[in-house]
Amino acid sequence: MKRRTFLQRSAAAWPVLAGLASPAPAPAQGLQPLALPKPQKQGGKPLMQALAERQTNRNIGEEKLSPQMLSNLLWAAFGVNRETSGMRTAPSAMAVREIDIYVFLPEGVYLFDAAAHNLKPVLAGDHRAKTGNQAGVGKAPVSLVYVADLDKYASGSGPMRVTDAAVQTAWSNAHAGFIGQNVYLYAASEGLACWFRALIDNAGIAKLLNLRPGQKVLYSQGVGHPEKAA
To answer: What is the pTM of this model?
Structure first.
């Protein structure tokens, strides 16, 4: 075969070969920011009862949470509870607030903006099954992924710079734990099933979300209505 003929045939075949390649993650194109209803800060079960009923329930059904319930859940997790100072429902050392919550929904992945109390689009498509390595992870209507932006420690976001990597990691794990417990207590208060996960593909999720090297995926947490008995 002559060289020119080979190149022409190769060029013609390229679109077909390209179609066989693994597709890149879909961008957020088509997703719109989601305005959340104002969180309801009254009601629910008393704290001591919620503590008594707090538990991990992996049997989460596929029924979606209402917009109001999703709003309440995210506010309870790490929302602003003091408007004048911007302080949150979970503590953060030196008010660095380095934990970001990525919200995995059936239609796509969003970033929770606590100050505006809305969801910013990040990635289109249903990626819930990628938030854990165990069976059944993708059934939960909401999966939260906790990401620590460690660069904030050294950027002067707080009153002092923290450059020790071990300290950054320890503090961020504690902060994510506070948020996870808030989610557990809200779930218990509303009769929801909740599942906090440490066994996740950290590197895979970081690649999916196109995170910077300074952003570290820590944990995920599924929330939804308990699966109904057959």
So the answer is: 0.87
